[in-house]
Amino acid sequence: MRVTFLGTGSAMPTGDRVQTGILLEDDEPLLVDCGSGVLHRLARTNRGYEGVETVLLTHHHLDHVSDLMALLKARWLAGEETLEVVGPAGTEDLVDGLLDVHDYLQGRVDLTVREVGADEPFSVAGFDVRAFETRHSMPCLAYRFDDRFVFSGDSEAFRDLTEFADEAAVLAHDCSFPDGIDVSNHPTPATLGEALAGRDIGRVYLTHLYPHTHGEHGDMLDSIAESYDGDVRIADDMLSLTIE
Protein backbone atom coordinates (compact mmCIF):
# COMPACT_ATOMS: atom_id res chain seq x y z
CA MET A 1 0.00 0.00 0.00
CA ARG A 2 1.21 3.47 -0.90
CA VAL A 3 0.04 6.33 1.33
CA THR A 4 0.42 9.94 0.22
CA PHE A 5 -0.56 12.79 2.50
CA LEU A 6 -2.05 15.27 0.03
CA GLY A 7 -3.24 17.72 2.67
CA THR A 8 -2.16 17.82 6.32
CA GLY A 9 -3.74 21.14 7.27
CA SER A 10 -7.00 22.16 8.83
CA ALA A 11 -9.89 24.58 8.43
CA MET A 12 -7.19 27.29 8.55
CA PRO A 13 -4.84 26.17 5.74
CA THR A 14 -1.38 27.64 5.36
CA GLY A 15 0.93 28.07 2.40
CA ASP A 16 2.56 24.75 3.25
CA ARG A 17 -0.50 22.76 4.27
CA VAL A 18 -3.79 22.49 2.41
CA GLN A 19 -6.86 20.92 3.95
CA THR A 20 -7.34 17.21 4.58
CA GLY A 21 -6.83 14.54 1.95
CA ILE A 22 -4.96 11.23 1.81
CA LEU A 23 -4.36 9.12 -1.30
CA LEU A 24 -4.18 5.36 -0.76
CA GLU A 25 -2.90 3.16 -3.58
CA ASP A 26 -2.97 -0.60 -3.79
CA ASP A 27 -4.59 -2.40 -6.71
CA GLU A 28 -6.84 0.67 -7.05
CA PRO A 29 -6.48 4.23 -5.76
CA LEU A 30 -8.72 5.66 -3.03
CA LEU A 31 -8.97 9.29 -1.96
CA VAL A 32 -9.81 9.70 1.73
CA ASP A 33 -11.36 13.15 2.30
CA CYS A 34 -11.24 15.99 -0.19
CA GLY A 35 -10.71 19.37 1.45
CA SER A 36 -9.70 22.62 -0.18
CA GLY A 37 -6.43 22.33 -2.10
CA VAL A 38 -6.53 18.55 -2.30
CA LEU A 39 -7.47 18.58 -5.99
CA HIS A 40 -4.31 20.57 -6.79
CA ARG A 41 -2.16 18.19 -4.73
CA LEU A 42 -3.81 15.21 -6.44
CA ALA A 43 -2.89 16.67 -9.82
CA ARG A 44 0.78 16.43 -8.77
CA THR A 45 0.59 12.65 -8.29
CA ASN A 46 1.02 9.97 -10.93
CA ARG A 47 -2.65 9.08 -10.58
CA GLY A 48 -3.98 12.59 -11.02
CA TYR A 49 -7.66 13.36 -10.59
CA GLU A 50 -8.29 11.38 -13.78
CA GLY A 51 -7.16 8.20 -12.04
CA VAL A 52 -9.15 8.49 -8.82
CA GLU A 53 -12.79 7.53 -9.12
CA THR A 54 -13.60 6.76 -5.46
CA VAL A 55 -13.69 9.12 -2.47
CA LEU A 56 -14.15 7.95 1.12
CA LEU A 57 -15.25 10.69 3.53
CA THR A 58 -14.63 10.63 7.27
CA HIS A 59 -17.22 13.36 7.89
CA HIS A 60 -18.83 16.38 6.29
CA HIS A 61 -17.04 19.42 7.67
CA LEU A 62 -16.04 21.85 4.94
CA ASP A 63 -12.29 21.27 5.28
CA HIS A 64 -12.87 17.61 4.40
CA VAL A 65 -15.32 17.96 1.50
CA SER A 66 -14.86 21.37 -0.12
CA ASP A 67 -13.03 20.05 -3.23
CA LEU A 68 -15.56 17.28 -3.82
CA MET A 69 -17.57 19.10 -6.50
CA ALA A 70 -14.32 20.46 -7.95
CA LEU A 71 -13.12 16.87 -8.31
CA LEU A 72 -16.36 15.86 -10.01
CA LYS A 73 -16.07 18.78 -12.45
CA ALA A 74 -12.40 18.11 -13.20
CA ARG A 75 -13.13 14.46 -13.94
CA TRP A 76 -16.03 15.42 -16.22
CA LEU A 77 -13.90 17.91 -18.14
CA ALA A 78 -11.11 15.34 -18.44
CA GLY A 79 -13.53 12.90 -20.07
CA GLU A 80 -13.86 10.56 -17.09
CA GLU A 81 -17.31 9.05 -16.67
CA THR A 82 -17.65 7.87 -13.06
CA LEU A 83 -17.28 8.97 -9.45
CA GLU A 84 -18.18 7.07 -6.28
CA VAL A 85 -18.55 8.87 -2.96
CA VAL A 86 -18.65 6.77 0.21
CA GLY A 87 -19.10 8.13 3.72
CA PRO A 88 -21.05 8.14 6.98
CA ALA A 89 -24.78 8.67 7.35
CA GLY A 90 -25.86 11.88 5.66
CA THR A 91 -23.41 11.58 2.76
CA GLU A 92 -26.22 11.19 0.23
CA ASP A 93 -27.94 14.34 1.53
CA LEU A 94 -24.60 16.18 1.41
CA VAL A 95 -23.96 15.27 -2.22
CA ASP A 96 -27.56 16.00 -3.23
CA GLY A 97 -27.33 19.41 -1.58
CA LEU A 98 -24.05 20.25 -3.31
CA LEU A 99 -25.54 19.26 -6.65
CA ASP A 100 -28.57 21.44 -5.96
CA VAL A 101 -26.19 24.40 -5.62
CA HIS A 102 -24.06 23.39 -8.61
CA ASP A 103 -26.94 22.07 -10.68
CA TYR A 104 -25.03 22.24 -13.96
CA LEU A 105 -22.91 19.33 -12.70
CA GLN A 106 -25.89 17.00 -12.43
CA GLY A 107 -25.66 14.10 -14.84
CA ARG A 108 -22.15 14.96 -16.01
CA VAL A 109 -20.69 11.70 -14.65
CA ASP A 110 -22.16 8.44 -13.45
CA LEU A 111 -22.23 9.36 -9.76
CA THR A 112 -22.90 6.77 -7.05
CA VAL A 113 -23.17 7.47 -3.33
CA ARG A 114 -22.93 4.88 -0.57
CA GLU A 115 -23.30 5.31 3.19
CA VAL A 116 -21.34 3.18 5.66
CA GLY A 117 -21.25 2.88 9.43
CA ALA A 118 -19.23 1.45 12.26
CA ASP A 119 -21.40 -1.65 12.55
CA GLU A 120 -19.89 -3.89 9.90
CA PRO A 121 -16.82 -4.05 7.64
CA PHE A 122 -17.11 -2.96 4.03
CA SER A 123 -15.06 -2.88 0.85
CA VAL A 124 -14.23 0.20 -1.20
CA ALA A 125 -11.86 0.52 -4.19
CA GLY A 126 -10.51 -2.94 -3.43
CA PHE A 127 -9.70 -2.13 0.22
CA ASP A 128 -11.20 -4.07 3.12
CA VAL A 129 -12.19 -1.44 5.66
CA ARG A 130 -13.46 -1.25 9.22
CA ALA A 131 -14.90 1.96 10.66
CA PHE A 132 -15.01 3.36 14.18
CA GLU A 133 -17.04 6.32 15.45
CA THR A 134 -14.86 9.13 16.77
CA ARG A 135 -15.52 11.97 19.21
CA HIS A 136 -16.02 15.09 17.17
CA SER A 137 -18.50 17.95 16.83
CA MET A 138 -20.38 16.05 14.14
CA PRO A 139 -20.58 12.33 13.29
CA CYS A 140 -17.18 11.19 12.07
CA LEU A 141 -15.63 7.82 11.27
CA ALA A 142 -12.06 6.60 11.67
CA TYR A 143 -11.04 3.96 9.15
CA ARG A 144 -8.76 0.94 9.36
CA PHE A 145 -7.40 -0.63 6.18
CA ASP A 146 -6.38 -4.19 7.14
CA ASP A 147 -3.49 -4.08 9.62
CA ARG A 148 -1.62 -1.59 7.52
CA PHE A 149 -3.08 1.88 7.84
CA VAL A 150 -5.50 3.69 10.17
CA PHE A 151 -6.78 7.24 9.79
CA SER A 152 -8.41 8.82 12.82
CA GLY A 153 -10.40 11.44 10.95
CA ASP A 154 -11.14 14.35 13.26
CA SER A 155 -11.42 13.34 16.90
CA GLU A 156 -10.47 13.89 20.46
CA ALA A 157 -7.87 11.38 21.58
CA PHE A 158 -9.30 8.50 23.61
CA ARG A 159 -8.33 4.96 24.49
CA ASP A 160 -11.02 3.17 22.47
CA LEU A 161 -9.85 4.91 19.31
CA THR A 162 -6.19 3.98 19.84
CA GLU A 163 -7.27 0.42 20.63
CA PHE A 164 -8.97 0.42 17.21
CA ALA A 165 -5.57 1.36 15.74
CA ASP A 166 -3.52 -1.04 17.87
CA GLU A 167 -1.03 -3.22 15.94
CA ALA A 168 -1.46 -1.23 12.73
CA ALA A 169 1.69 -0.47 10.78
CA VAL A 170 0.85 3.24 10.46
CA LEU A 171 -1.64 5.50 12.22
CA ALA A 172 -2.36 9.02 10.96
CA HIS A 173 -3.95 10.88 13.86
CA ASP A 174 -5.45 14.32 14.26
CA CYS A 175 -3.23 16.52 16.47
CA SER A 176 -4.65 19.93 15.68
CA PHE A 177 -3.18 22.10 18.43
CA PRO A 178 -0.16 22.27 20.75
CA ASP A 179 -0.52 21.89 24.49
CA GLY A 180 -1.87 24.93 26.26
CA ILE A 181 -4.73 25.51 23.81
CA ASP A 182 -8.17 25.04 25.33
CA VAL A 183 -9.86 22.89 22.70
CA SER A 184 -12.53 20.24 22.37
CA ASN A 185 -13.26 17.85 19.48
CA HIS A 186 -9.52 17.62 18.69
CA PRO A 187 -6.53 16.36 20.70
CA THR A 188 -3.47 18.10 22.00
CA PRO A 189 -0.14 16.22 22.20
CA ALA A 190 -0.53 15.49 25.92
CA THR A 191 -3.98 13.92 25.51
CA LEU A 192 -2.88 11.99 22.43
CA GLY A 193 0.20 10.63 24.21
CA GLU A 194 -1.94 9.42 27.09
CA ALA A 195 -4.35 7.71 24.70
CA LEU A 196 -1.46 6.03 22.86
CA ALA A 197 0.32 4.78 25.98
CA GLY A 198 0.98 1.05 25.79
CA ARG A 199 -0.27 0.67 22.23
CA ASP A 200 1.77 -1.27 19.68
CA ILE A 201 1.69 0.81 16.49
CA GLY A 202 4.50 0.79 13.96
CA ARG A 203 4.52 4.54 13.35
CA VAL A 204 2.24 7.48 14.14
CA TYR A 205 1.95 10.56 11.93
CA LEU A 206 0.42 13.76 13.28
CA THR A 207 -1.87 15.56 10.85
CA HIS A 208 -4.74 18.09 10.67
CA LEU A 209 -2.34 20.73 11.95
CA TYR A 210 -3.64 24.23 12.64
CA PRO A 211 -1.33 27.25 12.20
CA HIS A 212 -1.03 27.29 16.00
CA THR A 213 1.36 24.31 15.70
CA HIS A 214 3.90 26.23 13.61
CA GLY A 215 7.24 26.26 15.44
CA GLU A 216 5.86 23.87 18.08
CA HIS A 217 6.57 20.52 16.43
CA GLY A 218 9.52 19.59 18.61
CA ASP A 219 7.64 20.37 21.80
CA MET A 220 4.60 18.46 20.53
CA LEU A 221 6.66 15.33 19.89
CA ASP A 222 8.34 15.69 23.28
CA SER A 223 4.96 15.96 24.97
CA ILE A 224 3.68 12.77 23.35
CA ALA A 225 6.92 11.00 24.28
CA GLU A 226 6.24 11.61 27.97
CA SER A 227 3.48 8.98 27.75
CA TYR A 228 4.16 7.03 24.57
CA ASP A 229 7.53 5.64 23.51
CA GLY A 230 6.63 4.73 19.92
CA ASP A 231 7.77 6.29 16.64
CA VAL A 232 5.85 9.56 16.17
CA ARG A 233 6.44 11.99 13.32
CA ILE A 234 4.89 15.10 11.79
CA ALA A 235 3.15 14.55 8.46
CA ASP A 236 3.72 17.03 5.63
CA ASP A 237 1.87 17.63 2.39
CA MET A 238 3.03 15.22 -0.34
CA LEU A 239 4.81 12.92 2.12
CA SER A 240 4.56 9.47 0.58
CA LEU A 241 5.36 6.11 2.15
CA THR A 242 4.99 2.44 1.31
CA ILE A 243 3.48 0.02 3.82
CA GLU A 244 4.18 -3.66 3.18
Give a short synopsis of this structure.
By secondary structure, this protein is of the alpha/beta class. The protein has helices at 38-43, 62-65, 68-77, 91-101, 159-165, 189-196, 217-225; strands at 2-7, 21-25, 29-32, 54-56, 82-87, 110-115, 122-124, 127-133, 141-145, 149-151, 170-174, 203-207, 232-234, 239-242. The chain has 7 helices and 14 strands.
Description:
This protein is an alpha/beta fold. 23% of the residues lie in helices and 27% in strands. It has seven helices and 14 strands. The strands form two sheets. A seven-stranded mixed β-sheet has the order 6-5-4-3-2-1-14. A seven-stranded mixed β-sheet has the order 7-8-9-10-11-12-13. Strand 11 (170-174), helix 6 and strand 12 form a beta-alpha-beta unit. The chain is globular and about 55 Å long. The N and C termini lie close together (6 Å). 48% of the residues are buried.
